[in-house]
Structures are given as C-alpha cells and as structure tokens.
Amino acid sequence: MSNTSKNFLQSSIGKKLVMGLTGLFLISFLVVHCFLNAFIFFNDGGLMFNVGAMFMAKNPLIRAMEYVLFIGLIWHMVQALILTIENNKARPINYAYHNGSANSKWYSRSMGILGTLLLLFLIVHLAHFWVKSRFTGLPGEDANGNENLYAVMQQVFAIWWVVVIYVTGCISLAYHLLHGFPSAFQTMGWNHPKYNPLILKVGTAFSIIVPLIFALMPIAMFAGWVK
Amino acid sequence: MSKLESKIPEGNVEQKWSKYKSSVALVNPANKRSLEIIVVGSGLAGSSAAASLAEMGYKVKVFCFQDSPRRAHSIAAQGGINAAKNYQNDGDSTYRLFYDTIKGGDYRAREANVHRLAEVSANIIDQCVAQGVPLAREYGGMLSNRSFGGTQVQRTFYAAGQTGQQLLLGAYSALERQVGLGAVEMYSRHEMLEVVTIDGVARGIIARDLISGKLERHFGHAVLLCTGGYGNVFYLSTNAMGSNVTAAWKAHKKGAFFGNPCYTQIHPTCIPVSGDHQSKLTLMSESLRNDGRIWVPKKAGDTRKANEIPEEERDYYLERRYPAFGNLVPRDVASRAAKERCDAGFGVGASKMAVYLDYKAAIDRYGKTQAKKLGIDNPTAEQLRVFGKQVVEEKYGNLFEMYEQITGENPYEVPMRIYPAVHYTMGGLWVDYNLMTTVPGMYALGEANFSDHGANRLGASALMQGLADGYFVIPYTIGAYLANEIRTKAIPTDHEAFVKAEKEVQDQINKFFAIKGTKSVDHFHKRLGKIMWDKCGMARNEKGLIEAIAEIRALRDEFWKDVRVTGTADEFNPELEKAGRVADFLELGELMCMDALNRKESCGGHFREEYQTEEGEANRDDANFAYVAAWQSTGNGSWELHKEELKFEAIKIAARSYK
Amino acid sequence: MSSGNMKITLKVWRQRNAKTNGQLATYQLNDISPDMSFLEMFDVLNEQLIVKGEDPVAFDHDCREGICGACSMFINGRPHGPKNKVTTCQLHMRSFKDGDTIVVEPWRAAAFPVIKDLTVDRSAFDRIIAKGGYISVNTGNAQDANSLPIPKVDADKAFEAAACIGCGACVATCKNSSAMLFVSAKISQLALLPQGQVERVARAKNMVAQMDAEGFGNCTNTGACEVECPKGISLENIARMNREFYVANLKD
C-alpha cells in the first residue's frame, strides 16, 4: 500500500469514507436480499423463493460476492469500533449534563448501539439460515426439486420470540439507515442545497420501506398469511 | 530629550513618503536573520507587522494576552475600511482621503503621516483581497463600497458588519503562516508587564505567562507596541473587557512621551446603558447612519411610544443642523448633538438618555425600489414593508439581530434607541514619522500611537491605520533604526537591566496580594470610569477637570489600601491581571484630565464647554493650540509637557464645517 | 434601572488547574436582572465571591459582543446556552426563568484541556490554521484588488464560511469532539475563492492531518455542530472539505 493511501485510510476523513462506502455497499446488498426474499409473498409454498435461493447459492459470481460482502461487513464493523474508541478518547471527561436532543436526532447519536443490536441480530439470523444453507444442510427439497430453504423459514418463524427478535432487528435497521443513508452522501461530499431534500426523501423512504418488507416476512409467516 | 524630533522628511507632502522609501537605510537579508523584534499585541497592527517583518526575514516574537491572536479587539470593528481607490468613480483621490482625514481630525493631526496613510490605503485593500479576505462584492464581481461619516464619496470597503473580523483573520492567517514556518514565535496568554531599557534604549520586555504565572524575560533589538487604545479607562466602553493601557503605560513610565491623552472618541451609535450591572457597551455600526435617520420628539419629555409620534412632531436634529452632511456628520459632532438633545430634556427611553435611530424611511425607500425591480406596479403597503425589510436585512441583518438580542426589541418594527459611548482613543504614545517613540528602539503602531487621527477619527479609518502601520509603514521605517543595530549581539537576559525590570514587576504583584483589602478590582474600575465619564467625557470644563484630578488621586490611594486580589501569583489569575491594568488606568486617568485641562480650546472629540460658538459648535484655538501635547513622565506622578507644533502646508487650516 | 429580582441556582464546574480534578459547585444568586447578559451574571457571582474572600470563577471572555470567540460556556447541556446563533456573552438572562437551576461546564474535549474552571486551552485551532489556513502572499505582492473579479455568489459563500469565530462550540457539542466544522469553514473559504486555488491540495491535506494529530474525534454527521454554531456555519462546508480532501489525495 502506498504511503498516500495508507495515510488516507488512517485519516479521520478516510475512515469516515470507509464507513460511508461500506455502508452504501451493505445497502446495495439489502436491496438484493429484500427483493429475493420478497418472493415468499407469491404465496406459492415457497417455490419461487427456493428458485431464487438456489440461484444465489449456486451462482459462482454470487458466491464470490459473498466473500466481498463479508469483507465489507467486517470492515464496516471494525472501522466503527475503531472510530468509537477514538471518539471516546477524544472526550475523556463527560459532561454532567449534555442536552443532545436539542441539536441532533437520537438515532444519529446512537449508531454504535443500533449497529451492535444489528450485529446481535445478524448472528442469530446467520445461525438460522446461512449456517444451515452453507454448512449443516437443508431439510430436503421442494416440489420442483430445489433445496427447501423456505421450509426452514417456516420452521424458524413459527416461534413467537424469534419473530420478536427479527422485528426488533428490522426496527434497528430502519433507524440505522435513517441516519446512515443521507450521512453516506454527506461523507462523500454530496451536500448541495438543491439535491439535499431529494437525498433525504429517498433515504427516509428506503429506511422505512426496506426494513418494513423484511419485518413483514416473519410476521406474515407467523400469522399464517403466507403458507 | 526635551526636544521632540518628528523626523518628517523634507519636500512636498506628496513626495515625502516615496522619497523616504527610496532613501531609507536597508538591512541586508543575512543581518535580518540575527535581528530580533518583539511585537506586543496581535490585532490588525500587531499581526500585520509581525507577519510582514517575519516575511522579510527578521526573527519575530509576538505576545498577546488573549488565548489566541485571532481574538484581539480589532475583530470587533464592524463597518469598514477606507481606501482611496476611487472604484466608484465619484471623485475620490489620495488627496481627498488625506484632506478628509485632516479635516475630520479637526486639524490636530500631522500632515505627513496622514498623507502617507492615504497613499498606502489602496495597497491595503489589494493585500487583503489577495489574502482571501471576503470583502463585499457587486454582482459583476467587483468590490462594493459604502459611505461613512465625514466624507462625501463612497470609499469604504466592507464585509457585512464584520469587516474588522475579516481583516483581522486575514492578518492572523498571515501571522499563523509565519508561525507555521517557524519565523514567528507566538506567545498567547502572555501579558507584557514591563519594558527593559539599557542606557535609555529598548532592549526587551518582561512578560507574565498567564497560565503558570511565571515571569519571563525576552530580548529584542526593537520592541513594537501594538496594544490598542485605552478607552477602558472609562470602564464602560465599546472596547473588549481585556483592552488595557498597561503596555503603553509601562513604556510611558520608561520614557516614552504620551501624546494627546485627552482625545477620546465617543461613538454616537451605541446601545444605551440598561443598568448598574452593565459591563460593556455595544456599538451599532456607523454604517447604520447611511440609511437610518436620527431623531427625538419635538416636545421635551414626550412619553409617547416612538411609533405614536407623528412625522411632524419629530426633530431630525442632525438633518436640521447640518444639512450638507445630515446623518453622516463625523462622530464627535453626532455624539455631541445627541448629548445636547438629551441634556435639554428631549431624550427617549426609560433613562431618557437615548435618541432614536429610525429605519422606517429606509425600509419604505428600499421597498419601492425592490418592487420596481420585481415589476410590481401597485405594491401594497405590506408588500413594500416586506421588500424593504428584506433589503435592510441583507445590508444590516446581523446588526439588527444583535440589537434585538441585547434589548429584547425588534428594530424592524420600532426605532432603535442609541446613545454615544466611548469607543476609540486618538491619543496614544507619541511617535515620530518612523513610528518610534521617544525611547529608541521602541515603536507604537495602530491605536496605541497618537499619530493619524488628530482630535477625532473618521469612521473606517482605524482599520486603515492599523494595517497601514503594520503592512506598509513599519517594514520600511524600522530599517532606519535596525540598520545601526546589526552589530548589537543578542543581550543575555541575565543582564542586570532584565533582573531589575523583572523585580519591579514581581514587587508590584507582591504588593497587590499584600493589601488584602475589602473591595474588588472592578469596584475601583467602575468608580474611576464614572469620574472619567462625568468629568472628562463628552463635555469637559475646568472645574470638573480639577475636581476629577483630585478624585482620581484619592481613589488611587484608596485602591492601594483597600483592593482585594484573590488567589495567588503562580496560577491562572484573571483578578491579578485586572488589578495591574486598573492600577495603570488610575494613573492614566489623571494625565488625561491634565491634558484636557491644559487644552483650552474645543477640537474634535475634546469639547471644553468654555470654548464653544454661540451655536454650540466646537471653538478651536489655532493660534495657541495647534500642537501635539506630548507628556513626559518625570516620576512620582508628575509630568512635563512638550509641544510639537503642527504645520499645515498642504491644507489650509480652516474652521471645520459640516453644514 | 439597577438589579432585578430573578433567583438563579448555578451549578458551576470548579477546577483549580489542569492537573487537579474538578467538581460542580452550587451557588445561589438573587437580584438577577433579565437585562443582564449571562456573563454579567457571572460578574455578579464573582463580585460576591471576592468580597467573601473566595476564588472567583475563571472564564474566558473579551469583546462581549459575540465576535471575538473567547467566551465558551456549556450551559444546560448546550454550548452558549439555550438560544441558537448566539455566543454566551450575547445570551441574556431573559432567556431563563426565575428560579431556574443552570448547569455551567467548560468545553470538554481532549484537545481542549481545562486551564482553570471554565477556561480551556484552544490553541489547537491556531496550530491547525498555521498548517495551511492561509494564502501565501507576502506583503507587497498583491495585484489590484479589482483585477480579479469574484462572482458574488462565491464571495458570499466564502464570507459565510469565514464568519467562523473559532469559539469551539462545534467541538464542545459534538458527541465525538470533532473539529470538522471549524476546519472545513477555513478550507471552504479559501477553496471557494480564486486566490485560494494555488495551495488547495496541500491545504486540505495538511490541515486535516493537523486536526487529526491534535486528538479531535471523528465526524459522524450528527449535525449538532451546525445547530449550535453561533455564526450558522453550514454542514455544507464539511462536505466541501471532504471533497477537497479526496481530490487532494487523488492528485498527490
């Protein structure tokens, strides 16, 4: 690594850019993930969904991207951890009284906590699906002869407290995005009075719609809306 | 030492400076590296001088008592800076700026210095713009100008109401650049407390590190005092809380003559005092007089609200008395006129010590032009008000906000209440053409010297003078002295003169703590301020001045018996800092009164009630008082007066009229 | 005319010097006038302390008209107190109610160590400026000021950025003690002007490097600084600084 790029990545603005870009990359993953999972709403016993899942599992490009995704995710997390430690060090003695709500949103100030919640959720989520799909194996095939990931979903989302965990995870995601989405643009230097409202509107819409669709999956299965 | 040598170059006033520049002694670059210059104060004069001298190659140390050089009080100047650029094509020229400044100063300034100031004024604007100072511009990208008091051309450059801030930040950035390059050593939170002289020549200073309390000795081949004015002797003034006379006063006691100490500028447009708790007065920029109209009710003791007083019952007294200049008469004239009205019982507001500054006419006028611009033929009254308000807001928004913040009143709806307040001191250390005081090697720049404004300073001229001295005068004139200093090796600071000076400072500090009195430093400062304001303020008379001198002496005795300075010497101790400053003000106040007593005439900011015309205008006595009063401290609280005769060769001395 | 009748309870951070620990001390004040500025209320407190022979509260202040940037109190959880776009010295007691309790602390940041009580050391800001917050033009080098027309829009934007008074409220309020609003204001001012182009790349890199070296935290775009800035410096400047920094790193 050249000296310039090393310096860049160690600078406050470089680290911030890493957060923004990895964040946007993870957002792009959310789009794909959300789109494919929404196949369950065809309500066809998971046939379409399993087609999608099979495609994702077998396509070599996707498999390669999985590594990239994990690198992006881990980079995002590690960078966040480093930043948090540094930021705590930048104020060794805290205020007795700090009225943060007077000048900023609680979720903007709580990205670390929201991110930690998301991480915990992610561990649960990976254990439920990814570990089974990739390592321990799935319980048989569906009517089309595809691996039946859908069946696992039905199994998992039959338990009420799992549904609660997933919904909580989606709420955390929503707030994390509500700050993260426009923040990534600010970090990239995209702040212009003419376009700021647009970024904010798209960001807010995205932060609500995507987590809502995700949250509806466990709810719909638990409630028996999709079978 | 009794003869004052002003060292004004020979020749026509137009040629003095250019001839001087081409003949003054130079110091070669190698020698500059071993010459050390101490700059005290980091305002416009100090920062610009320090940066320029460091750029030339001198070794420079800068001292300021604030936590950063950027906080020097030049930052608070609002309105603008004059320069004879004639960008507006309205007939301005170097000569006119020179003439306006001499006339504005009521013919009590030195012609040669003022002409030089006018000559370099244009360079200042160039320099500042090159530094990235964002001065106001027109839509075509060219610089914008406005008018200020005492002139009939538009030559004032500005950056909204924050001109001083922007110019200072420009000079500060130039200074910090030199700090970054290692050419300037910066000593923030350091206060100069004594000058070190060896054989009558300035060789350094004693400074106190305000955080640790340690006294430090610093050597310099030359010492530049850029320490501002002494308006805080009045306690209430538009100066910053920390502005003080200490550096200049210590220099004075070490041999530097003090020039025209009684010349004080009372600024006409300040927010009136609201109560005993008041710690400072806030200026409303003179630029407001461009568009605002000043009035009082025609009926004495009128208790109606401003908006209830009909047009025909308002007395626009400046427009009435001075039709040619109207609301834009010079500051001293405007201030006295306000005082005259209030003293006669026409004042407004709760204290009756205020006049109105009204923007209604301006809002109407701007509303109409704006409506025309927008192509609205029959605008409603409400539309006119909204448009007018928008224009006024763009021009003066921050000032209006400030007013509302302090008074709780909305100046877009009701006229502002204003009253004069102490703002600037034209007097200061006497300097020759080179800006050197009567102590060889010691210079005074900017407001700290007496040289350019005579008995009254015109608006937007302080910034001009501070930067002229720092950027364009001292870099040349200091060569005349330092060229002879190239053989002087740095004097080690264990020299007995340093030891002795440090001991004097230490003794005074010990003395403060030993008093263990009952009253705070502020208590004495407030009482001194009241004496000064009542008896040596906007109007002075013999009886009052004699009383004031006696009262100040008594107060000084009481101070040295009963002041309480808390804390210790070896810590951050603002009370100790204030004590030292007030102790010096208590001596300066007496000299100001003596000077005012001596000057048996009225001129500019100095108004002796005994010397006025039948119309109440200042009555100058050119036959007997066309001189600079330079006071020499002879020890034990006594002074000897020296006179520098003022010769007017380029301008015919005349009565000042703004009618 | 004179004093008023508000009663105020003050909880003020007292700390002898940088080496000792501090704590909040409680003071009762009566007869406070709503026309007093916040600092004039502190004058009243200090006067009382001095007469009692106690150590007055040390706080930075100078111009008392909102422009020098010296005053720096963290009042009831906010820098410069409850009103937006004012400095502590411009805050008046009419913004509080009779009987209020007011907590006053110093700016808190590792890069702004406490000197005494409410006074902190902000020299880090000067060191950042010394690394590039200027245009290198020696005295006497300048061309005629009008030979370089600058579009009013750019001049105005540069002015808005230049309005920064270097008080440090942005750092104080930021949950990360980040100085990006301050640094970006200067970088923006000079990047917007034609005069600033020559040193643009070096300026962005050097000033950011010094900011990082001073121990300020990292910006997480909460936007608190923009709200609390007494001069209304916009977050747009931070975005511009980011761009300047990226371009600078791509170029050099």
Spell out the key features of this protein.
heterotrimer; A: 227 residues; mainly alpha; 3 helical TM bundles of succinate and fumarate reductases; 9 helices; globular; C: 252 residues; alpha+beta; Ubiquitin-like (UB roll); Fumarate Reductase Iron-sulfur Protein, Chain B, domain 2; 2 domains; 14% strand; elongated
What report would you give on this structure?
The complex is a heterotrimer of chains A (227), B (659) and C (252). With 227 residues, chain A is mostly helical. Chain A has a single domain (13-90, 106-223), classed as Fumarate reductase/succinate dehydrogenase, transmembrane subunit (3 helical TM bundles of succinate and fumarate reductases, Up-down Bundle), CATH 1.20.1300.10. Chain A has nine helices and no strands. Chain A has helices at 3-10, 12-37, 47-58, 60-89, 106-109, 111-136, 149-156, 160-188, 196-223. In chain A, helix 2 crosses helix 4 and helix 6 packs across helix 8 (160-188). In chain A, 31% of the residues are buried. Chain B starts with 12 loop residues before the first helix and ends in a 14-residue tail after the last strand. Chain B is globular. Chain B has 18 helices and 20 strands. Chain C has 252 residues and is an alpha+beta fold. Chain C contains eight helices and seven strands. Chain C has helices at residues 38-51, 123-130, 152-162, 169-173, 180-192, 200-213, 224-228, 236-251, and strands spanning 6-14, 23-32, 73-75, 78-79, 101-106, 114-116, 119-120. Chain C has a five-stranded mixed beta sheet. In chain C, strands 6-7 form a two-stranded antiparallel ribbon. In chain C, helix 5 crosses helix 8 and helix 6 (200-213) packs across helix 8 (236-251). Chain C is elongated and about 60 Å long. Chains in contact: A-C, B-C. Chains B and C meet through helix 3, helix 5, helix 6, helix 12 and helix 13 of B and helix 1, helix 2 and helix 3 of C.
